Amino acid sequence: MVLLFIISIISFFIVTLTPGSPYPWGELNPKISAEVKANFRKKFHLDRPLHEQYAFIMRDLFSGNLRSIKDDRPVMSRILERLPATVALNLTSIVISLSFGTLLGVFAARYSGHWQDAAGSFIAFLFIALPGFWITYVVVITLVKGFGVPILGTHSYGIDFPNALASGLDTLWHLLLPATILALGGIASQSRYLRATMIESLREDYIRTVRSKGLSEDVILYKHALRNSIRPIIAGIGMVLPALIGGAVVIETIFAYPGMGRLGYEAVLERDYPMLVALNFVVAALVLLGNLISDLLSAAVDPRVRLE
Amino acid sequence: MQGTQPLTETPTSRVLRRFWANPVAIPSLTIILFLTLIAGGIVLLSATGHDWPCNPNQTNLELKLLPPSPQHWMGTDNLGRDVLSRMLHGASISLTVGLVAVAVSLGIGITVGAIAGYFGGITDQILMRAVDALLCFPTFFLILTVVALLGPSLLNIVIVIGLVSWTGTARLVRTEFLTLRETEYVKSARVLGQKAWHIITRHILPNAAAPILVTAVLGIPDAILQEAGLSFLGFGVQPPQATWGNIIADGKTYLLDAWWLNLFPGLAILIASLSFYLAGDALRESAESRS
After folding, report:
1. Hey, are the CB atoms on A247 and B140 less than 8 Å from each other?
2. Beta carbons within 10 angstroms of residue B206's beta carbon
3. What's the whole-model pTM score?
């Protein structure tokens, strides 16, 4: 709660203290009378001192009355519209990065010190160093213009699907590509972490014990060593969210994907203060929720973790 | 320890020896050095009034969208500007952004981390809460918001990237300080009555130098990639100043007709950040393990 309070203060002041005018018309437009300007300022409490503005914004945020300066619609309903798409995109991306990150990390740890390990590390760093917007653009243009495959938005337009399954698959396809590109960085960092913890685990006595029992290498790696190494990764999922949602700004913009990242980008362009404050707040709240979930998950994976 | 090693090897020379033994160290450092020389050289050249190979902002519509040729090694863009010249000037922007942003974030991160780790208690609690709060923000979105509202300029961009990326350094420095604070030599320095400032800068900080250096090196490509992303969205360093990000952004309309507008800057960003990541990782490995 304290954290949410600090977050709300930071997001409010970052947005309001920066220069620039939030008026939908230009500051100096001569056709707008002083009266209209005053009414506008009054409506959005822009005539009050900063701390009162903050109080108004917070009150409106929690009572659901906070309105976007741009189109006068309630901010919360606009964010909630975008929420399912964002959650779907980020969840898919987390699932992809966890599964491929695990595979790559275990692979590197199994061959630690050999050339396969070096190759694995190189691939991981390649994924982080790849400028997301660049690779996205190349993929999108090649697929759309070169092969005529529809990938923008959440589903194909102008096509009547015979049944729910086909339409579902279509939505899934539109989700998969941006999620994969978004996941590249996560795959890399998770595989690096996992490699380090796996190498530690593989030196432990219990690994020698299971190895002497004659179990196969796969069972040793995935059943015994992985279980003891994956907890830091799962505990870190919540911390991955800010990077994901931030990175999604660019990718959602290119894919025309209606998520919160693109909403934020549009709000920045329109200098929509209430929207920006609310968005930062909602994202931070999502991150806290993600932390909670990853704590619960790590307790489920590792019985040594006790929830209090 | 190998028999040929001198018994008096200092920690620094041990880290360096292990670093040079890493197969990625020399290639990645060579690339970094090469980029630095190019960037420095091109800035010096244009400061003295020479343009090589061309003026990066010289437009010539008769020469627009030419593919790579002996005259224009990387082709020309939609305004007939020489892409190679723009790439070279972009290199200096990318390196500046990387170095300055990291300097800003190191400055804040070390200060906050050192204070929190050395004094502990309530100071530590408050500072770390603030760090936790900042960590909840989507970094790139935060940068985008502030840069867009402040107006995009090179100075604003590096300061904002630095301001939002110090949290990792602060956490790391704090952990190092918490451990080092309990060592015998710090305790004896305290018993001798030395000032906190003296103990922090002379006794603790030098011993935490290796992990700090590693985060610094790994922070440079992060900043380069963030600036490129901002440029791509139109909030980076503003045209006509060439940056790798805005060459891609300008060229995206012509992707199918002019592949060179995308390929070269994209590869440049990729190779530059990859070299920094690999060098940083090699440094981390040689500083970390004790064998």
Report:
1. yes
2. 12
3. 0.83
**A264 neighbourhood in chain B, CB within 8 Å:** 141, 144-145
Return the ∠ at Cα A193 (arms to A7 and A179), rounded to 5°. Answer: 65
Contact B91, B42 (CB under 8 A): yes
Question: How far is residue A45 CA from its own chain's centroid?
Answer: 32
In a 3-state reduction of DSSP, which class is residue B184?
helix
CA distance B50 to chain A (A): 32
Please name which of A92, A68, A94 lies closest in space to residue A81, comparing C-alpha atoms: A68
Integer Cα distance of A91 and A187 in angstroms: 14
Flag if B149 and A18 touch (Cβ within 8 Å): yes
CA torsion angle B143 B98 B173 B27 (round to 10) = 140
Question: What is the Cα–Cα distance from A115 to B7, expressed in whole angstroms?
Answer: 32
- Cα angle vertex B154, ends B151, B156, to 5°? 50
The number of C-alpha atoms within 13 Å of A159 and in the hemisphere containing its C-beta is 14
Question: In whole angstroms, what is the distance from residue A298 CA to residue A269 CA?
Answer: 40
Q: Which of A232-236, A249-253, B38-42 has the lowest mean pLDDT?
A: A232-236
What's the rounded Cα separation, in Å, for the pair A69 and A75? Answer: 9
In terms of Cβ atoms closer than 10 Å to its own Cβ (0-12, 13-18, 19+), residue B162 is buried
Radius of gyration of chain B (CA): 23
Q: Helix or strand or coil: residue B82?
A: strand
Residue A142: pLDDT band (50, 70, 90) is: confident
Hey, is the C-beta of B31 within 8 angstroms of any chain A C-beta? no
Distance CA B14, CA B25 (A): 15
**A33 backbone φψ class: left, alpha, beta (φ>0; ψ -120 to 50):** beta
**Residue B102 exposure: Cα atoms within 13 Å on the Cβ side:** 21
Give the nearest chain A residue to B277 (CA atoms).
Answer: A125
Q: Which residues of A touch B227 (CB under 8 A)?
A: none
Q: How far apart are CA A282 and CA A261, in angstroms?
A: 12
Output the CA–CA distances (angstroms, integers) from residue B64 to A296, B60, B61, B70, B257, in the order listed: 58, 7, 5, 15, 12
Q: Residue B80 in 3-state DSSP?
A: coil
Residues in chain B: 291
Judged on CB neighbours under 10 Å (0-12, 13-18, 19+), B273 is buried
Burial pattern B35-62, b for ≥16 Cβ within 10 A else e, equals beebbeebbeebeeeeeeebebbeeeee
Q: Which residue has the tokens 């309990």?
A: B182
Q: Across the interface, which of B136, B140, B266 has its CB nearest the CB of A134?
A: B266
The full 3-state SS of B218-265, as one line of letters, equals HHHHHHHHHHHHHHHHCCCCCCCCCCHHHHHHHHHHHCCCCCHHHHHH
The ipTM is: 0.77
Closest-CA residue of A relative to B282 is: A121
Cα–Cα distance between A296 and A110 in angstroms, integer?
A: 29
Please tell me the distance from the alpha carbon of residue A261 to that of residue A244, in angstroms, as a whole number: 10
B10-39 confidence digits (pLDDT tens): 777 888 888 888 888 888 899 999 989 988
